[in-house]
Design a protein that fits this description.
By secondary structure, the chain is α/β, with parallel strands linked by helices. It has eleven helices and eight strands. Helix 6 runs parallel beside helix 8. The longest helix has 17 residues. The N and C termini lie far apart (44 Å). The structure holds SN-glycerol-3-phosphate (G3P). The site of SN-glycerol-3-phosphate (G3P) has 9 residues, from helix 7.
């Protein structure tokens, strides 16, 4: 399972990269705005800075909603670095653009996916990744993990190569359940990734080992 970090914060991206388990980064316009990144030159420079840190795919989202401008924006983003994956919303014009990018060999991430029908369309258009938002489905009392299961079944039925990128991950249990289902990728905050480290028995056990060692050494 690939681990992507879902942030535009360079410090957090560095911390995850330094841990040695990072496979990529996803961003979106809200995450860029949260870091105060506005205006085209700053946005472009920020994507370049992210690409310099991470070994792996970096999703950069278009903000256009019509085919011509999605293509124009996406092609410019893809030229920045081979790591860039053009993130395109699941709308009619977006599906057409994904098909176009796919024929040009440009990697895509179809975002804002909330149903298996949308995921089926993304795969048929040739998306590299599909991003079902499981946390946001849970927020409205819908089974986000159930959607990952359904998409896995559908994609396996037809051997679609589109990778399931479980997005809107909120906590450790989401990551574990996605791994059990067989999501190809998960993208989540640094807190969820670091949360995988934690177990009280690990902390207690280590404290005991160190105390016993110190006692035996006469410290
Ligand atoms: O990048 C898209 C997705 O991961 C957003 O997550 O937490 O804003 O629902 P969230």
């Amino acid at each position: 399972m690939k681990f992507f970090i879902d942030t535009a914060n360079l410090q957090q991206i560095k911390e995850a990269q330094d841990l040695g388990v990072l496979d990529g980064v996803t961003t979106n316009p809200s995450l860029m705005a949260k870091e105060g990144i506005t205006g085209e030159p700053n946005i472009i420079n920020h994507y370049k800075a992210i690409c310099d840190i991470v070994d792996g795919d970096v999703s950069a989202e278009v903000i256009s909603t019509d085919f011509d401008n999605i293509v124009r924006e996406g092609e410019a983003l893809a030229k920045l670095n081979d790591k860039i994956v053009v993130k395109v919303p699941m709308i009619k014009e977006g599906v057409k653009a994904i098909k176009h990018f796919s024929s040009q060999g440009i990697k895509t991430n179809c975002t804002l996916v909330f149903s298996s029908g949308q995921a089926l369309l993304a795969a048929k258009a040739g998306a590299t990744y599909v991003s079902p938002f499981i946390g946001r489905l849970d927020d409205v009392s819908t089974d986000g993990l159930g959607l990952i299961e359904d998409i896995r079944l559908i994609y396996d039925n037809y051997n679609y190569e589109t990778q399931i990128l479980a997005a809107s991950i909120r906590h450790v249990t989401h990551i574990i359940e996605c791994a059990k289902i067989g999501a190809d990728v998960m993208t989540g905050p640094l807190s969820a990734i670091l949360g995988l480290l934690k177990h009280p028995l690990t902390d207690n056990g280590l404290a005991q080992f160190l105390a016993d060692h110190a006692k035996a050494a006469g410290k």
